[in-house]
Amino acid sequence: MEVSTSKETQPFDENSIQKIIEELQEKCEIEKHLPGGGYLHMSDELPYLVIYRDLKDKEDEEKDRATVRLILSEASFLIIGDKDFEGYQRLMFSLSEAMSSKFKSFLLLEVFAGESGSRGFKIKGPAQKLSTTINVFKEELDEMNAGYRALNFTDTEIEDSMERQPPGQPPLLSLEQLKDAGCLLIGLQVPPVYRSQDGEEYPVFFRSFKDNFVVALHKTIYDFIRIQTSSGVKSYRALGQKNLQEKVLEIDRELAEIESSYQFLWLVSPANIRTIKETFFKSNYEKVLNYHYRLLPFDPDVLKRKLYNLKIEEVDDPALSYIFREKREELDLQISMLTERGLDSFFYNSMMLYGKISRELQREAETILKEVPEQEQQDFESILKAEDFEVLAHKEFEYFRGQDENFSSKVHVRDDVNILMVSRGELYLPSDYKLNANETKALIQHEIGTHVLTYYNGNKQPLRLLSIGLTDYDTLQEGLAVLSEYLVGGLTGNRMRTLAGRVVAASARMHGADFQEIFRLLYNEYNFTAQRAFNITSRIMQGGGFTKDISYLKGLVQLKKHLEEGGELSPLLTGKFSLEHMQIIKELQDRRVLSPQKLTPRYLNSEETKEKLQQIRKGIPLSQLINA
Fold it and tell me: Of 120, 281, 606, 628, whose CB has the highest number of CB atoms within 10 Å?
């Protein structure tokens, strides 16, 4: 968040202060520019206010510009300007009085920088009166210090004193005023290790320091709220800002637009795959034509410049700063890969993007291939065509509209589509599409009950990235989609073998195997049919080595572990993200940045699903998650 100091404001008087109190009580949240460059951002649902005062000396203020950023992500903070300090005192007294009447108590916490060269935090406050809260503060700050051993931090000092303000500055409120207003005051002196003596900020270190500091601050404030107030805040994670700032929304929008400006999977897949396949089979599995790729519809240099022009470093909210930075890194890798198709560097970046194959994942894949036999293709009496599947898809869409009348996804049957796919929440079908009736329930829940549903749920959130996808969202998405196939009774042995085959194929590529060697591994050693062995191999060899296909089994393994450890399934359908993001998603939900999800899949509350989930929680092997 960036606080502007350019707006003209009226001096404080009793009338203007009363209007601030009334606006806060009426709207529950207030943002207000104040005299001398001051600023108030406050929620009437939180019984605390974190405070920073501008320094009178402009040179010192310029040196200390990083310290104020330690509090800018707070849901309730006050920056005291350099004019009319007595007016600010009257404002703080009135705010404290009003809020302590509502919550029984109210906390003022002033943050300021210590002397250059200092290596420890100093807590100034009523050590006896707030012993539990101040001890929590000390423990959290000392734990934070332990992560920066190279800086030789000293233990956090507690100073039981009424002098809780920066040296040489007047107190925020007198002891009598604090008593009359029913509030408590703590001062925190912060070692300015995140900047040089001249005020030059160390940006990478400062980001880490700030993120850890905010956690320590929130845990302390939550302890105060829990013990001393009547507030209903249930977690320290709920203490961040509820409304997203314009800068956050702008970066979210631009990241989503950059990802939407190209179709990564389409540009990675070869345009001549049918010719490659025909030649390979006619040559008795020997000759592999070169892959030909579609022309890039963008200039990679221009797109990367746009990506790195985003001022993510100015986002002070730790949770949002984190997901934006890792998303930028993911998009950077994708753009690089598209310029490197057919080169060794494409494969190396693919491994960076989709991760390594763990021993556990390799073992699971090999166990499935060993224990689950390859089944011959059966001739089914009931064959569905594209128009039949379209009817079933519309029925599922009607089920969603029953939950949210605004749902408006469509089905597109097209001649220029060669696979069943979901793009931007809409379903695309090849016009010549055919499948047997036994596969329909599984595909409906895979594509619509997972991919369409999570796109729509994410699209109803204020962050567009939750519909486009946070970093590594594919792993959880495909894990959920495959799990849904099992829950509705449509996960076949051959389907599970395909997922396992993709892992062993990717592992072989990582160990230097070429197209023919991977094909023979699948065909001769793991008994895949030639057709299925080719399909797995050709996907893995896209671009020179494309390891995205490990996401399906990897996601299923991660999801199974999540359920075994007591995790819930429904919250994972809020949007498109990875399991590693669940703590951030939970925090944003606690802060009410995110709203409850709009849609749940048809299968979720069925008795069959509950029984199967119970079996998974008990540890049923993956090789037994097969319906037919």
Answer: 120
Contact between 477 and 451 under an 8 Å Cβ cutoff? The reply is yes
Q: Is the dihedral of CA 482, 486, 490, 496 positive or negative?
A: positive
C-alpha span between 251 and 307 (Å, rounded): 10
3-state secondary structure of 220: helix
Q: What residues pair up with 50 in beta bridges, in sequence order?
A: 77, 109
Q: Which pLDDT score is estimated for 151?
A: 83
List, in sequence order, every beta strand (DSSP E) within 390-482.
411-414, 421-423, 426-430, 434-436
The rounded distance, in Å, linking the Cα atoms of 132 and 203 is 33
| Residue 57 CA neighbour count, 13 Å, CB half | 6
What is the DSSP pairing of strand 38-43 with strand 29-34? antiparallel
Residues 6+ apart with CB under 8 A from 579: 475, 476, 558, 559, 562, 572
Q: What token pair was written down for 445? A: 């829940």
Count of positions (residues) in the chain: 628
pTM of the model: 0.87
CA dist list (Å): 607 to 183, 349, 549, 610: 53, 44, 31, 5
User: Are 186 and 108 spatial neighbours (Cβ–Cβ below 8 Å)?
Assistant: yes
What is the mean pLDDT for each group of 10 consecutive residues in the chain (628 residues)? 51 88 90 92 93 75 83 93 93 95 96 90 89 93 90 90 92 94 95 88 92 95 94 91 91 95 89 91 96 94 96 92 96 96 94 94 96 76 78 92 93 72 82 76 91 96 96 96 94 94 97 96 96 94 95 96 96 96 94 94 92 94 85
Assess contact for 113 and 119: CB atoms under 8 A: no
Question: Hey, what are 399's tokens?
Answer: 């089920």
Distance CA 245, CA 77 (A): 15
> HEC string of 122-185?
EEECCCCCCHHHHHHHHHHHHHHHHCCHHHCCCCCEEECCCCCCCCCCCCCCCHHHHHHHCEEE
DSSP run (H or E) holding 86: helix 85-103
